[in-house]
Amino acid sequence: MEFLVRGEIKSTSFKFLIFLVLFLSVNNILQTVSYSTKEFDNLAKVCNVSAEDLEICKKYEVPDSESGKCFLRCALQKLGMMNPAGDIDKEASIQTMIKSWPRFSSELNTELFTECYNQVQPVTKELAGTCELAYKLMKCLNVVTRKHGYYNDFLKSDK
C-alpha cells in the first residue's frame, strides 16, 4: 500500500480508503435491517420454532406459546444478549441494540434496554435459564421500542 507523498494520495491507498468507506456504509445498512423478516428466517433455521410463532415474530410481536418463548431464548443467545446458561448479558445486550438500531442514539438504546433489564431483574434468579426470562425481556423491549418508533419503517415496508 502506498501512502501520502507530497500531499498527493497514491492510487492504492485511495482505493483502500474508498473500499473502507463503502464497506462501513454497507455494514451499517445491514445492521439497520437486522430485524427484518429475513433475519427471523435465518434464526428459525438455527432455533426450533413453529410456523405460527415465526409468523408472530415477522409481525414484530412477541409469541407467548412455550415454543415461541424458547425461540426467543435461542435468538437472544445467538445475538449474544443471553449467555448459553440463559442469563441476560446486560452490556452485550446494550451493544447489540446499539449496533442493531443505529438510527437511534446510544443513550436511548441504553435507556430502553436498562428499563427492561431492571423490570426483569427481580425474577432473574427464579427464571434463570428458562425461556420465560427471554419472553419477559422481549415483551418489555417490544413495548418500549414501539413507543419510540423502532419498528415504524419495518411495519410500513412489510405491508
UniProtKB/TrEMBL annotation:
Keyword check for Ribosomal protein: no
InterPro entries (UniProt xref): PBP/GOBP, PBP_GOBP_sf
Keywords: Membrane, Signal, Transmembrane, Transmembrane helix
GO CC, alphabetical: extracellular space
Alphabetized GO MF terms: odorant binding
Entry's Gene Ontology BP terms: sensory perception of smell
Record-given protein name: Odorant binding protein 1
Residue ranges of the TM segments: 12-30
